[in-house]
Specification:
Structural class: alpha/beta
Distance between the termini: 21 Å
Protein name: Putative phosphoesterase, ICC
Helix content: 10-25%
CATH class: Alpha Beta
Order of helices and strands: EEEHHEHEEEEEEEEEEEH
Strand order of the largest sheet: 6-7-8-12-11-14-15
Domain Calcineurin-like phosphoesterase: 21-112
Organism: Halanaeroarchaeum sulfurireducens
Oligomer: single chain
Number of helices: 4
Radius of gyration: 17 Å
Number of strands: 15
Strand content: 25-35%
CATH architecture: 4-Layer Sandwich
GO molecular function: hydrolase activity
CATH topology: Purple Acid Phosphatase, chain A, domain 2
Shape: globular
Largest sheet: 7 strands, mixed
């Protein structure tokens, strides 16, 4: 989905002005923590899709916006290699990378030699964060993950972004879908403020779902209007 200043590409968000690709909620190790699996395996699936997106978009910068890991208290077998593969593919594409900590990433410091942080300023007006905490700095726009938004359309679930006007301190908030395909996601069809887990989302009625499909992007009315239509 292209607008004047951002593009939704599958489960990622590209910000042309900053030449930055944002992805969140990889939840590496989720396949080891639950009785689910992908036909090609979690690691191959994530690595292949990241490589495809990097080749398609060629960003100069990638922000991994938190919840790289799934388990809070241990590092399942293979997760270190999966994370190394993510960084290798970004390095191979010639992009720099910024890693943000999410609420699941309590063990992340044991796997990374470089620094992590809670939020990252792309410009004077845009901050990227995971979204589970109130931001420490003001911005006109926040780009976050954490919510794993999905929308139910004609009985099928689709990962979606949420473009939300007039949220935390009057700012715009864009929520990106979970990059992992193992997360079932949080249905936004009946979501209200009491269901949101991010303190940045203060008026969900003003959030517009956007999905990326093989047939092109679909942008929906704000949730306050959409609930009466679905």
């Amino acid at each position: 989905m292209k607008t004047a200043d951002f593009e939704l590409v599958d489960r990622t968000l590209y910000l042309p002005a900053a030449d930055t690709l944002v992805l969140a909620d990889l939840h590496l190790g989720r396949d080891r923590s639950s009785a689910v699996e992908l036909p090609v395996g979690e690691r191959d699936d994530i690595h292949e899709r990241i490589a495809t997106h990097l080749e398609l978009i060629s960003p100069s910068h990638v922000v991994l916006a938190g919840d790289l890991l799934h388990s809070f208290d241990r590092v399942p077998t293979g997760v270190s290699e999966s994370l190394r593969g993510v960084k290798d593919r970004i390095d191979d594409a010639g992009a720099t990378v910024t890693v943000l900590q999410g609420n699941h990433d309590t063990m992340l410091s044991t796997l990374l030699s470089g620094p992590t942080q809670s939020e990252y300023r792309l410009s004077d007006d845009v901050i990227v964060a995971h979204g589970h905490r109130r931001p420490t700095v003001a911005a006109k726009r926040y780009v976050v993950g954490h919510e794993h938004p999905t929308i139910l359309v004609e009985g099928a679930r689709h990962p979606c972004a949420l473009a939300c006007a007039d949220q935390f301190d009057g700012s715009e908030v864009i929520v990106v879908p979970a990059f992992t395909r193992l997360a079932r996601g949080t249905l936004v069809n009946d979501l209200d403020a009491a269901d949101s887990v991010s303190p940045l989302l203060t008026d969900l009625d003003r959030c517009r779902p956007i999905i990326s499909t093989d047939d092109g992007p679909l942008e929906f009315p704000p949730l306050g209007t959409l609930r009466s239509l679905l």
